[in-house]
Specification:
With about 290 residues, this protein is α/β, with parallel strands linked by helices. The chain contains 9 helices and 10 strands. Helix 4 runs parallel beside helix 5 and helix 8 packs across helix 9.
Length: about 290
């Protein structure tokens, strides 16, 4: 398939591992909404290629052979999958993380699994997923190995903290998830300092009310837009750590969506360390939206 498709396509990291295959299958199953899939794999010379032999000579370095092996890994990963929405694979010599960030820089979504292996693409789907989540300029989907390919719960969880970055996450979910899914907009809050138990209870009640009001207001603003008028939203306000609340709720959802906020090279993430934590140990397919 030609790659003349503008920005509406998915770049998927592939290295032949089960995690990569799961990410690939997940992306292909959603090609109707997220665009066709472009597999990307990276290779580098293994350490032994630079070690002199007994005769003192170096082993020949054949770039074409390494590229061919990597291409075959991609082909093996695609076996048994519907390839109608799959673009030609891109094979890159170099860092897997940099390959995905570079090739995926014009995509609508970068998709990675949670684990990877192999000399051809060391760590492609391990720490690379966190690297992409922190540094990509486009949304990143992180797919755990046990993620169901089909949407079983008809539920999408979105973290919301009142920021414009969280609004971007809600919009992404409303635009790209199945129309029949319920989008749960979740705000986590914590009581401030306490004086007495009575004062603490009153403060918590007020915070809970304000939290729920804030979530309902943002939902109303989205449902007032013609393209989202028929979307099903649910407001959720919970007291506690946002990371634990979102993680727990995502276990019963098809997708978790959070916003990301970049601040220079460090690229600090929305909700403090929330999206960073969730990208390292996701329980469900997780999309980090920029």
């Amino acid at each position: 398939m030609s790659t003349d498709i503008g920005r509406h396509y998915q770049v998927v990291g592939v290295d032949g591992s089960p995690g990569a295959k799961r990410a690939l299958a997940w992306a292909i199953a959603r090609a109707d909404r997220l665009g066709p899939v472009e597999p990307v794999s990276a290779w580098h010379y293994p350490w032994w290629a630079f070690v002199p032999t007994a005769t003192g000579t170096m082993l020949p370095l054949n770039e074409e052979e390494f590229a061919d092996v990597t291409t075959r890994l991609v082909e093996l990963s695609l076996e048994g999958m519907d390839r109608r929405n799959v673009l030609d694979a891109v094979v890159v010599h170099g860092s897997a993380g940099e390959a995905l960030l570079t090739v995926g820089g014009q995509a609508s979504l970068i998709v990675v699994g949670t684990r990877g292996h192999g000399a051809l693409a060391s760590g492609l789907l391990g720490s690379v997923s966190a690297n992409c989540a922190s540094n990509a300029t486009v949304p990143v989907a992180i797919i755990p190995g046990e993620t169901s390919i089909e949407d079983e719960h008809n539920t999408v969880v979105v973290g919301y903290d009142g920021s414009e970055f969280a609004e971007d996450a809600i919009e992404w979910a409303a635009r790209y998830t199945p129309s029949e899914s319920v989008i749960k907009v979740v705000h986590a809050w914590s009581p401030t300092g306490t004086v007495t138990a009575q004062v603490s209870a009153l403060a918590s009640e007020q915070l809970s009310t304000e939290s729920l009001t804030m979530v309902n207001e943002i939902i109303d603003s989205f449902q007032s837009r013609p393209e989202f008028a028929k979307r099903k939203f649910e407001a959720v306000s919970e007291s506690g750590d946002a990371r634990e609340i979102l993680r727990t709720m995502s276990a019963e959802a098809d997708l978790l969506v959070v916003g990301a906020r970049g601040r220079g090279a460090l690229a600090h993430l929305l909700l403090g360390s929330v999206s960073s934590s969730l990208s390292h140990h996701p329980l469900a397919a997780t999309v980090i939206v920029r």
